[in-house]
Amino acid sequence: MEGGLWAGKSKGSFRFPRAERLKKRAHIREVFRKGQGLGCSGAKLFVLPNGLSHNRIAFTFSRKFGTAVVRNRARRLGREAYRHIGYALKPGHDVVLLVYPGKDTLNERMDQVKRLFSKAGLYET
């Protein structure tokens, strides 16, 4: 189990390191443009190798997703789901998770994120 910044961490360590956040607009656009897109009901995942020893992720939303409160809750659920499976992901990728309305519980979001990362071949169960 490699895991980049998650290496050496136990399954119970759910930190979301700042280095794992994909923040620059240019980097996010590059992932959308050049990355492999994979979808499932309620979300789409874009993946692009980054040459780093860890993954970087950004959460974004479709237009007309709802109010800021709804978007922020969806972002928190996505981050929490990512924290729970981050230790089991192959390192070295930039990832953008595009979320559509729905899937309002942590369990639903975790199932969705696991399914997408498995499709991308990044999730090591």
Walkthrough of the structure:
By secondary structure, this protein is an alpha+beta fold. The chain contains 3 helices and 4 strands. 34% of the residues lie in helices and 20% in strands. Strand 3, helix 2 and strand 4 form a beta-alpha-beta unit.
Keywords:
125 residues; alpha+beta; Ribosomal Protein S5, domain 2; four-stranded mixed beta sheet; 20% strand; globular
Strand portion, in percent? 15-25%
Query: What is the terminal separation in angstroms?
Result: 10 Å
Series of secondary-structure elements, N-terminal to C-terminal:
HEEEHEH
Report the principal-axis shape: globular
| Arithmetic mean of pLDDT | 85
Q: Determine Rg (CA atoms, Å).
A: 13 Å
CATH level-1 class of the domain at 38-119: Alpha Beta
Largest beta sheet, briefly? 4 strands, mixed
Reported CATH architecture of the domain at 38-119: 2-Layer Sandwich
Instruction: Provide the low-confidence segments as ranges.
Output: none
CATH topology of the domain at 38-119: Ribosomal Protein S5, domain 2
Main-sheet strand order equals 1-2-4-3
Give the helix/strand class.
Answer: alpha+beta
Number of strands: 4
The helix fraction, in percent, is: 25-40%
Number of helices: 3
